[in-house]
Specification:
Blueprint (H helix, E strand, L loop, with lengths): L3 E5 L3 H12 L3 E5 L10 E2 L3 H5 L4 E3 L22 H7 L4 E4 L4 H9 L3 E4 L4 H22 L8 E5 L3 H13 L2 E6 L2 H10 L2 E4 L3 H4 L5 E4 L19 E4 L9 H7 L3 E3 L3 H5 L1 H21 L1
Parallel strand pairs: 1-2, 1-4, 2-3, 4-5, 5-6, 7-8, 7-10, 8-9, 10-11, 11-12
């Protein structure tokens, strides 16, 4: 197991992760986490002091919102990406949702980069928190029980599969939309109502709640009129999402764009999932 790690920036998940790593005997050096109320890990006064201590640097998840500075909600300091890369040449940086421009800059500065969100084990585990977060929103934002409600899950990937199972457990009447015949067969095998994409439009009016997991627009000005006015739409997909923002605004149907749910609804569990994935990465680095 790795003995030292530097952590730069990050949200509550990363702060909780730092706590966990210290408890397991890892020496953790941090910067841009100074406003997190904890005295276990080492809070360095400069970014140079933090990164010099370790060959592995953990950055935020997601890494950056503006492509210029890393995400650091627990700090007033702005950490410039280029400045960080200049300090960690020859080292390994682990972050999440790294944009291509960041990857290109890392390559130019000889920084080995690992996007932890592309790890299959973390994607699967994060789907659990995302599904629970979507159900939490559905309970809070509707005036009916999920039990007995007609719910459509759009997409049958990692999140769609776990979400459909949870909804069924609550007693919802679950339908799942998919494009591939293989996915439609699995939907049917699991006991959900399969809806092929080509028949989606004519079925939209049946549902009390629609939860989208597909990262491209499916609901637009051409089919939004098929949706009931009292239907709640929850969009879990990254931009542009599965719903036309212009169409939904004009129709005035209840719509919630719910991104990055793992860190919002279950930061401790999310930190545990990240830790588990980190250890897998550390083992692979050691083997190489």
């Amino acid at each position: 197991m790795i003995k030292k790690i530097s952590i730069i920036g990050g949200d509550l998940r990363i702060a909780k992760l730092a706590d966990m790593l210290v408890e397991e005997g890892v020496e953790v050096f941090t910067y841009a986490l100074e406003n997190y109320d904890n005295n276990q890990f080492i809070k360095c006064s400069s970014i140079e002091d933090a990164v010099i201590e370790s060959d592995v640097i953990l950055g935020p998840i997601p890494f950056s919102s503006n492509g210029e500075n890393i995400n650091s909600p627990f700090s007033k300091e702005k950490v410039n990406i280029s400045d960080l890369f200049n300090l960690i040449k020859g080292k390994t940086l682990i972050g999440g949702a790294l944009k291509q421009t960041v990857l290109n800059e890392a390559e130019e500065r000889n920084v080995n980069v690992i996007d932890i969100l592309k790890r299959e084990e973390l994607s699967v585990l994060n789907a659990i928190s995302t599904a629970e977060g979507a159900i939490k929103i559905a309970i809070e934002e509707t005036q009916r029980t999920l039990h007995g409600s007609n719910v459509l899950v759009m997409g049958f990937g990692r999140i769609g599969k776990i979400l459909a199972k949870m909804l069924e457990g609550i007693g919802a009447i679950v339908s799942c939309e998919a494009r591939k015949n293989s996915d439609l067969a699995w939907i049917k095998a699991y006991g959900y109502n399969p809806i092929p994409l080509k028949f989606l439009d004519e079925n939209l009016g049946k549902f009390d709640i629609i939860i989208n997991t597909i990262p491209y627009v499916i609901i637009d000005e051409n089919n939004i009129n098929n949706i009931r006015q009292d239907c709640l739409i929850i969009d879990l997909a990254s931009n542009p999402g599965g719903v036309s923002k212009e169409a939904i605004k004009e129709k005035n149907i209840p719509y919630i764009l719910a991104l990055s749910l793992p860190g919002k609804v279950a930061p401790v569990t999310s930190a545990e999932f990240i830790k588990e994935t980190l250890y897998n990465i550390f083992d692979e680095i050691k083997e190489n």
